[in-house]
Amino acid sequence: MLHTCIDHLVITAPSLMDGAEYVRQALGVRLEAGGEHPRMGTHNCLLRLGDGLFLEVIAVNPEAPQPDRPRWFQLDAPGQNVQPRLATWVARTNNIHAAVAASPLAHGDIQPMTRGQLHWLITIPADGGLPLQGAAPTLIEWQAQPHPASKLLDLGCSLLGLEANLELAAAEQLSSMLVLTGFHGAFSVNVVSAGLPCGLVAHIQTPTGLCRLGLPAGVIAV
């Protein structure tokens, strides 16, 4: 049977320093250094959010060669990477090929990726875009190894819940995708009226209290 769950949140930023400072101001903690993604020309820093959960700040690595394709997570899209933002999330699955086949959304090609000693399979659209503008997850299947979160320091932060605020048609698409890929976890899909802001909101417990990343809620749950 297919099983998917929240693996990590993705903060994109014009630089790694900008992204790390955005998270520090929002959550009151400093992120750990991650590493480089040679195929994508990016690098990251990380924050543990629980067992098998983490937050990633990712940005273009100015010292890396330009990749021969658009970078992932819309990092090359005009106007999409001018300030740090909660851009999307990544869902871990036990069978990425079956999950892509089952999903009604276009997640992109399944690509092998590495960062240091880590190896995984991940979905990446050819244009570097994000399914449902980031509200739908990128899919990942880690290869046989300890999960990256297990090696991160516990700074007292935990993900309490993640929500996607969408207009009705997109909300129905995302809800269907989650059911068909066997998703379980603290994720909710909310419907907003046409013309109101759409996007993700993450609710994170920190040492100083409950904090929120992303758009204001202000929506009607269904």
How much of the polypeptide forms β-strand, as a percent range? Answer: 35-45%
CATH architecture of the largest domain: Roll
Task: Describe the sheet with the most strands.
Answer: 8 strands, mixed
Largest beta sheet: what is the strand line-up?
2-3-4-1-5-8-7-6
The shape is globular
Distance between the termini: 27 Å
Estimate nothing, just give the exact number of structural domains.
Answer: 2
Chain-averaged pLDDT: 93
* CATH domain fold name of the largest domain: 2,3-Dihydroxybiphenyl 1,2-Dioxygenase, domain 1
How many alpha or pi helices? 3
> What structural class is derived from the secondary structure elements?
mainly beta
Order of helices and strands: EHEEEEHEEEEHEEEE
* CATH homologous superfamily grouping of the largest domain: 2,3-Dihydroxybiphenyl 1,2-Dioxygenase, domain 1
| Cα radius of gyration in angstroms | 16 Å
User: Which residues form runs of ≥5 with pLDDT under 50?
Assistant: 217-222
Helix fraction, binned, reads 10-25%
What is the C-level CATH assignment of the largest domain? Alpha Beta
Number of strands: 13
